[in-house]
From TrEMBL:
Essential cofactor(s): FAD
Organism, as annotated: Cytobacillus depressus
Classification via PROSITE patterns: ETF_ALPHA (PS00696)
Cofactor note (record): Binds 1 FAD per dimer.
Domain Electron transfer flavoprotein alpha/beta-subunit N-terminal: 5-195
Gene Ontology terms, MF aspect: electron transfer activity; flavin adenine dinucleotide binding
PANTHER family for this protein: ELECTRON TRANSFER FLAVOPROTEIN ALPHA, ELECTRON TRANSFER FLAVOPROTEIN SUBUNIT ALPHA, MITOCHONDRIAL
Alphabetic keyword roster: Electron transport, FAD, Flavoprotein, Transport
Classification via InterPro entries: DHS-like_NAD/FAD-binding_dom, ETF_a/b_N, ETF_a/FixB, ETF_alpha_N, ETF_asu_C, ETF_asu_C_CS, Rossmann-like_a/b/a_fold
GO biological process: fatty acid beta-oxidation using acyl-CoA dehydrogenase
Entry similarity comment: Belongs to the ETF alpha-subunit/FixB family.
Name of the featured protein: Electron transfer flavoprotein subunit alpha/FixB family protein
């Protein structure tokens, strides 16, 4: 059944985040031959419309307003609701990012719709659209179908591959005028922690350090390896609690959830709360001095050894490739 599916793009520092293109790929599956419409919200976003189309959107609608320069739940939900009222879609897909996790439930409540959150796979099978999502902190997966009403889902970054970019693809980029009013929050300024290199939640390679790195300086060899592999550095809560690194790097149940192609855990014991944030990574390598460490139970490759010897060796070898 062909459907019209909207995709909310996510803009950061003037660029579309990768998860927006993954959401377009999910929307293509959900549309089953119907139309995929990208939605861009901000103060000046129309220039990004063509890139959205190159990644598979059939057309793009922008809602631009000075009040939408920074994300606020009130502002964004007013803008998205206006597009929904205009377009009357059968589906809506949003990235399962901080923004998506905040705005999607608000929209679902306004629309009196269900919401399938944190989707890692989507397929059209047996006349149904089947959504897969992790449960019990990633220890099991459930499959869901929508039997009635809007097909509304958030998708976990790094799980659904974006479509091949086609720079020859064209489509209409139009703007919708929406009066943004009664904002209960006004963001005056956003001060981001300076982070080096790749964004942790979208990184294809994550080098994570635990209490085993022993100090802030102990993260040095991990940063070197991350640089060589164009990856991001992450951490266990143990390392964050010990003040070896910032909490923005924490991976796990109460930190970020990552699903890179390669996750290298260095000096991390593998507590259940840490596994909740990384066990769905495609390939897991664990480096730990203790052969009994729990992390080896989820690792595809295990190296029993001192991370301060193993990590620099890996860096030197990868440099040769
Ligand atoms: P440790 O458990 O101390 O492990 C250190 C490891 O390093 C050991 O296995 C040791 O053998 C190894 N090691 C030491 N030196 C070396 C060396 N030189 N070379 C190689 N290996 C070495 N944790 C998270 O990570 N993320 C979360 O989101 C999270 N949320 C939590 C929520 C709750 C409600 C609770 C109660 C806990 C949470 N935790 C979380 C904490 C979690 O239970 C663990 O305490 C934490 O993950 C341990 O961190 P660690 O593995 O770095 O430290």
């Amino acid at each position: 059944m062909a459907r019209k599916v909207l995709v909310l793009g996510e803009v950061r520092d003037g660029s579309l985040r990768n998860v927006s293109f993954e959401a377009v790929a999910a929307a293509k599956t959900a549309a089953e031959g119907g139309e995929v419409v990208g939605v861009l919200i901000g103060d000046s976003v129309s220039a990004l419309g063509s890139e959205f189309i190159h990644y598979g959107a059939d057309r793009v609608i922008t809602v631009e307003d000075e009040k939408l320069k920074q994300y606020t739940p009130d502002g964004y939900s007013q803008a998205v609701m206006a597009v929904i009222n205009e377009e009357k879609p059968e589906g809506l897909i949003i990235g399962h990012t901080s923004l998506g996790k905040d705005v999607a439930p608000k929209l679902a409540a306004k629309l009196e719709s269900g919401l399938i959150s944190d989707v890692t796979a989507l397929e059209a099978a047996g006349g149904n659209l089947v959504f897969t999502r992790p449960i019990y902190s990633g220890k099991a997966f459930e499959k869901k179908i929508v039997t009635d009403g809007l097909i509304f889902a958030t998708i976990r970054p790094n799980n659904i591959s974006p479509l091949q970019k086609d720079e020859a693809k064209t489509g209409d980029v139009s703007s919708l005028s929406v009066e943004i009013k009664d904002l209960r929050t006004i963001i005056k300024e956003v001060v981001r922690k300076a982070s080096e290199g790749v964004d942790l939640s979208e990184a294809k390679v994550v080098i994570a350090g635990g209490r085993g790195v022993k100090s802030e300086e102990g993260f040095g060899p991990l940063k070197e390896l991350a640089k060589v592999l164009n990856g991001a550095v992450g951490a266990s809560r143990g390392a964050c609690d010990a003040d070896y690194c910032d909490y923005s790097l924490q991976i796990g149940q109460t930190g970020k959830v990552v699903t890179p192609d390669l996750y290298i855990a260095c000096g991390i014991s593998g507590a259940i709360q840490h596994l909740a944030g990384m066990s769905n990574s495609k390939v897991i390598v664990a480096i730990n001095k203790d052969p009994e460490a729990n992390i080896f139970k989820v690792a595809d490759y295990g190296i029993v050894g001192d991370l301060f010897e193993v990590v620099p060796m890996l860096t030197e070898e990868f440099k040769k490739l």
